[in-house]
Design goal:
The protein has 608 residues and is an alpha+beta fold. Helices cover 59% and strands 7% of the residues. The chain has helices spanning 28-49, 56-59, 61-81, 87-110, 125-147, 155-192, 197-203, 205-225, 227-262, 265-269, 273-292, 303-334, 338-362, 374-393, 400-414, 424-429, 432-442, 448-459, 491-494, 497-504, 565-570; strands at residues 480-483, 513-518, 527-531, 535-541, 547-554, 574-577, 583-586, 589-591. Strands 1-2-3-4-5 form a five-stranded mixed β-sheet. A three-stranded antiparallel β-sheet has the order 6-7-8.
Length: 608
């Protein structure tokens, strides 16, 4: 055996039949096209309602937001369910899906304040992404159970349905993208012969939006009735992913093995160490499932991949422990934030996978059974847990903004963070109504420092997070090589490096600058011109002995006239040119003294 394969089940069908061996119903194609058309028309209508600041949608976000979420995702579920689920199951599931999506959208809009609510679609990116994830998982928990007429289907049915749907989704998106590439290519062809009707049509939203979703629905139907195509693509994809498991396992094992010697300081200093480790764990989980597939004996991978699956399953535990440790340290130091709460939820899901997969990897040592069989129950129940966690996060139950506000204010009140360092603007501009309610309460605090900080944030016009200032160059670190060789810069200039460091810029041992003494204004006193890679500063001596930046020269950005200023200075390719304020000619390129980039010369168009 050279690699994992998906066995050709006895239901592998001739072209034109579905995955259950049935000829597709004649109404299935029109039904899917109608769903795609209605979705496109619905999204276009919502777009028109929200077009403009004074539009109906812009003034009714509590209605528009939920409608957008339902219109974007419910038809996709219907495309996947029609013809596969029993009519009653599909109807009930569609109602449940629509209601849940609407409630998620309603809560996401309702929790925001005027300062956090932006323009259409008003929904936060997190609720859009996680709603799509939850819907995909939930649908592929419902569909296999309905097809097998069981509350909990067999693991092969879950794997087969979900993996085929992932391939089908990717192919449908790719087909839609290719369709639009061809349309734009055709528009370009017509344009060169003087016909721009197609290009004009493609710009029309009434055409573009509905057509996009009709094409997507067409792709879903074509891939659905070509079961052999989906299985073939899936087989190749799973084979490639399963061999990538070897690479990821070696990398993860090497990372964990090196930690006793390197420590975790470097990981924490990145500021997103926990997220990186969680991403590595997620990659391992995906690759483990790609190698395990449906768990049937005919689909077992080679011995080397079976060993890699066991090792990877065990490695999940230390990775999740490191991620949880990093999150705990951050929360202890800086408190809860919405991002940290979402990361903690991801860590919870990862811990469930780690526990179950670790048990599956080690179980043969004390029990007899088929290879990694406990992995199946873990995957199913962790999928249920994932959906539950997402619904809790984006509902009032575990609203990250509300929990973050409560924790941050509690830290302020108990003295864990001083009033002058507390981020009052987070309450005003990042945490919605919960933050603004807490901010209003802080304005009445008996502590004058807290109340004044809260009042300042309340009256702020916009949110501007203060960025840490970049370190100012030190005079001791400045390295400038004077030209020509043997020349020396005036001691009065070098003695003022500390004051001029910000104007001189980063001239250090790794990137030393070059300088020349040039009389730029003809007063018989040399100015000091310091050149870096793309700019040169001219410093002039004042009568009181102080040097100041007199002019700034920049190299043109166009490739034709670009020049290495430092290199040209070092080779002596520097001269001045009149009239009023002298330009520099460096390496044969004229540099003007105005601040800003030198414009490239406009060249005449070549003759046709």
């Amino acid at each position: 055996m050279t690699g994992p394969t998906v066995a050709a089940p006895e239901t592998e069908q001739p072209s034109g039949r579905d995955s259950l061996g049935r000829d597709p119903a004649p109404w299935l194609a029109p039904a899917r096209l109608a769903i795609g058309l209605l979705q496109g028309l619905g999204l276009y209508g919502l777009h028109r309602l929200s077009d403009g600041e004074a539009s109906w949608g812009a003034t009714h976000p509590l209605i528009l937001g939920p409608l957008l979420l339902v219109t974007a995702f419910l038809p996709v579920m219907l495309l996947a369910g029609v013809g596969r689920l029993r009519p009653l199951t599909l109807a009930v599931w569609a109602v449940v899906t629509g209601v849940v999506l609407a409630l998620l959208g309603l809560h996401d809009i309702a929790r925001q304040s005027a300062d956090t609510l932006h323009g259409p679609p008003f929904l936060s990116p997190q609720v859009i992404v996680f709603s799509a994830v939850a819907l995909f998982i939930a649908h592929h928990l419902v569909a296999p159970a309905d097809m097998e007429r069981r509350r909990i289907a067999g693991y092969p049915a879950y794997f087969d349905t979900a993996s085929k749907a992932a391939v089908q989704l990717a192919l449908s998106v790719g087909f839609t993208g290719a369709f639009w590439i061809l349309l734009h290519l055709g528009a370009a062809l017509f344009r060169i012969i003087g016909l721009d009707f197609l290009e004009t049509l493609l710009r029309e939203e009434w055409f573009a939006i509905p057509v996009t979703f009709v094409v997507f629905a067409t792709a879903v139907h074509l891939t659905d009735v070509r079961d052999g195509l989906i299985r073939g693509v899936r087989t190749v994809g799973l084979m490639l992913l399963s061999w990538l498991l070897l690479v990821m396992t070696v990398l993860a094992a090497g990372f964990i093995a090196a930690l006793p010697f390197t420590g975790l300081d470097g990981l924490w200093n990145t500021g997103n160490g926990a997220a990186l480790v969680l991403a590595a764990a997620a990659a391992l989980i995906i690759l483990i499932n790609a190698a395990y597939q449906d768990g049937q004996p005919d689909n077992r991978p080679p011995a080397v991949l079976r060993a890699a699956v066991r090792v990877a399953a065990v490695l999940l535990t230390p990775l999740i422990v490191i991620a949880v440790w990093g999150l705990a340290l951050r929360i202890q130091q800086y408190g809860l934030t919405p991002d940290r709460i979402i990361a903690a939820a991801c860590a919870l899901v990862g811990a469930s996978f780690a526990a179950g997969y670790g048990w599956a990897a080690l179980s043969p040592f004390w029990r007899k059974g088929e290879w990694m069989r406990p992995l199946e129950r873990t995957t199913i129940w962790t999928a249920v847990l994932t959906v539950a966690v997402i619904l809790a996060l984006f509902s009032p139950l575990l609203d990250p903004a509300r929990l973050s506000v409560a924790d941050q204010v509690a830290r302020l009140e108990r003295g864990a963070v001083s009033p002058d360092k507390f981020d009052y603007r987070f309450l005003r501009f990042e945490s919605g109504k919960a933050g603004q309610a807490a901010l209003a309460r802080l304005t009445r605090s008996p502590d004058s420092r807290i109340s004044s900080g809260a009042k300042a944030a309340t009256t702020a016009e916009r949110y501007e997070r203060v960025q840490p200032a970049s370190p100012r160059p030190s005079a001791a670190d400045i390295r400038i090589r004077p030209y020509p060789t043997g020349a020396a810069l005036p001691s009065s200039f070098t003695g003022q490096y500390g004051r001029l460091a910000e104007n001189i810029g980063h001239c250090d041992d790794e990137h030393p600058c070059t300088a020349a003494l040039i009389d730029l204004d003809g007063d018989a006193v040399n100015e000091v011109v310091v050149a870096g890679e793309s700019s040169a500063s001219a410093f002039k001596l004042e009568p009181d002995g102080r040097w100041f930046e007199w002019a700034l020269y920049r190299s043109p950005s166009c490739r034709k006239d670009s020049v290495d200023l430092a290199g040209a200075f070092a080779s002596g390719q520097v001269r001045t040119t009149p009239p009023v304020f002298p330009d520099l000619v460096v390496g044969g390129v004229r540099l003007r003294h105005e601040e800003g980039e030198t414009e490239c010369p406009v060249e005449p168009d070549p003759a046709p």
